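Its record is set out here:
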Amino acid sequence: MCIAIAISLLMILICAMATYGAYKQHAAWIIPFFCYQIFDFALNALVAVTVLVYPNSIQEYIRQLPPDFPYKDDIMSVNPTCLVLIILLFISIILTFKGYLISCVWNCYRYINGRNSSDVLVYVTSNDTTV
């Protein structure tokens, strides 16, 4: 219980840092949140790989659920191959959404970094029309 509270407080702190960094335009404050998102994406990708490599583990996991778990019998009656495909589809949708959110945070970081940099692009143009 104590570990769950500590992790929750750490996540609140990381999210607050990202919000503060975006608001005050401090790109370095966004990096911990970005790293968390990458870590979360990697863990979810490992879950997808586990489902692919050990498809029978899903049935075993469902059997270990408490008897009063809603729709447990209905899930157990589904064809195991179909169940694996449904779970992989669900995980791939989640991974796609997480990838999109990672892209949003990275673009925010790049935008803030670009705004705060002193490099200015200068385009030289002339009205000279002679060839």
